[in-house]
Structures are given as C-alpha cells and as structure tokens.
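QA checklist item 7 of 12: single-chain prediction sanity check.
[x] sequence parsed
[x] length recorded as 382
[x] structure emitted
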Amino acid sequence: MARLALANIHRPGALTPTVVLSLGLGLSLLTAIALIDRSLTQEISGALSEKAPSFFFVDVPSADAQEFAGFIAAHAPGAAYRAVPMLRGRILALNDVPAEQIKPSADAAWVLQSDRGISTAAEVPEGSKVVEGQWWGPNETEPLVSFDKKLAQGLGLKLGDTVTVSVLGRAISARISNLREIKWERLGINFVMVFSPATFAGAPHTLLATLTFPEGADAAREIPLLRDMARAYPAITTIRVKEALEQANKMVGDLAFGIRIASLVTLLTSVLVLAGALAAGHQHRVYDAVILKTLGATRGRLILAYGLEYAGLGLATALFAIAAGSLAAYGVVTRVMEIGFSFAPGAAAGAMALALVFTLGFGLLGTWRALSEKPVRVLRHL
C-alpha cells in the first residue's frame, strides 16, 4: 500500500504540484505572520524589558535638578538614576545645503522632518560607542557634534562635515567630530546628535532622566512612586516603561491578529483550488479504484493506500509551507526590522496540522465517492 501511495504522489498528472503550491502558499503566509509576531513579541517582552529602565522623566527643570535627584533617592533607594541635559532643535542645513534640498535615504528622512531632542555630553553616552573619529576632550571649545553612524550614512554625512541646527531661535553650526553606533534597543537615554558641552554653554534647558531598579520591573515599587511623582511634580512627564512596552506588545498582537484574519482569505482560496484539483482528478481516481477492486483489492486496503497518499501530500505541503514561511519571516525580521529571529514550534505544528486536515479531509471524501462507484458500470464505458 505504501508503494502504491508513493507511486500516486509522483506519477505523471499527479496533483502534487498543484496542491503543494496552492495550499502551501496560503499556509506559508500564515506561518510567516505567526513567526514575525512571535519574534516581535519576544523582542518587546523579553530582550527590551530586561534592558529597559523602569521610568523616563521628561522635562525636568534644570533649576530643580538637585531637588529632584534628592526626591528620587528618598523614594527609590538603591535604584540607578541618570539625567542628561536636553534641548529641542531642528536641522536647518548640512554642509550649508538647506535641509529642504537634501535627498536622504528612506530610513533617515525622519531626522530632517521636525524638531527633535538633542543633548550635550562630556563623555560618550551609555549604550553607544564611537566607531569613527574621536571623542572631544574636556577643554574643547569648538562646536562639535557626534552623529549616529547609520543615519549619517543615510544623510550622506561624514567626518568633518558641518551640521546647522536651530535651537532657541538661533542657528548653530557644528563640525562632525565622530560617528557613534547606538544600541537603541536598550531603551536608554541616547540621541541622534550629541554636542560638545561648549556648543550650548549657558543655554536654558531641561533634563531627561531615567530610573532603573536593580531587580527589574517591580509594580509594588513603581506604582507608589508614580503616584508620589504626580503629586510632587505634576509638570514633569513620567513614563512607566513596562506599561508602555505592554501597550506596544498589545498593539503588535492586535495588528498580527488582523493580518491573520485577512490572510485567511488567501487560505480559503487555496482550499478552493485544492477542492477543484481533487474534483478534476475524480474520474481518474474512479478508474484506479475500479481496476484495483477488480484485481482483488478490498475497500479497506484502498482507503489505507489513498490515506497514505494524501497524508504524504499533506506532509509535503506542510514542509513547503514551514520552509517558505520561516525563510520569509527570517528575512523580514532580521533584514527589515533588524531584530532577533525567534522560531515558533506551535506555528509549524499548526501549519502541518492544517495541511494534513485539508488534504486528508478532501482527499478521503473524494476517495469515498470513487469507491462507491460500481465496477460493472465503469468497466462498461472503458
């Protein structure tokens, strides 16, 4: 029976290519979506949440810097507090070419589109490292800027180029001293542009601060601090990172669910193609069944043979769907999203189960009809 099933799978005119391509493509789409969803969820709830601070504090008045630091120390003993100066600025020109005339790459265009946070620092910020050029010394007086390397490449910038920004109504030009590689996924404090301290010496600014509990996210400590912050400093924006990540995770899940629903239309089309292919081969299946029954094959043995055939067909379809879906998801996750790929065994098992259910279900249904035909009537028309 196994030899008969195998022969039916690869014989001339077999349904194998039609079924594998039609049903396999629909299932590969579902598999790819499930794997992309899994990778995003793992990145947000796993890697990001482990590295992320517990709180962000935005627009802390510089005049209240010491008082605010004391408040944090009293209400969150043992937690790591970090604050950096922050201003708002907009890029006006690059190498004296107006920003409106710059043609950046698609992933760098946002840098030129609006105001954004900028900062000053005497040392290389945490979560980044200098990969080209050198960091400025403590006594540097020339206006210098450190730029994110990937975005600098997208804007066509290199070491020694000038960047002109509008800050507090003034146009300030600074020379690119170095390029940094920034680990944005840590969700720490970092900026596309970090200037030397002398560039904005004496300029009014606010602070951007983070607070990180050593044991990680802890609602028992975070919620009371959130309430105390609202009472003591209502003008300071407090962002609880875990809550923001949970909302992002929910949005990703909702989006993936919506895409899955839409992709079911593709799967339905694939099932209809499968049903049509089986219907087209029904007469051939009837002739096979009649001849085998005439040669002495029982109904049970024929059902077993055809069941093995459709199970093999379903397995081939599932393997195609898992391979194609995994490859597509890997490309999207690692090349487009630039995050780690996470394989989901459940998605692979689901694709295999659906492939087997559809092929076995429709196949055995058609086989049962073929076995119900009377040999005498069929042989009379041969």
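[x] summary fact logged: Residues 60 and 68 are 8 Å apart (CA to CA).
[ ] second reviewer sign-off
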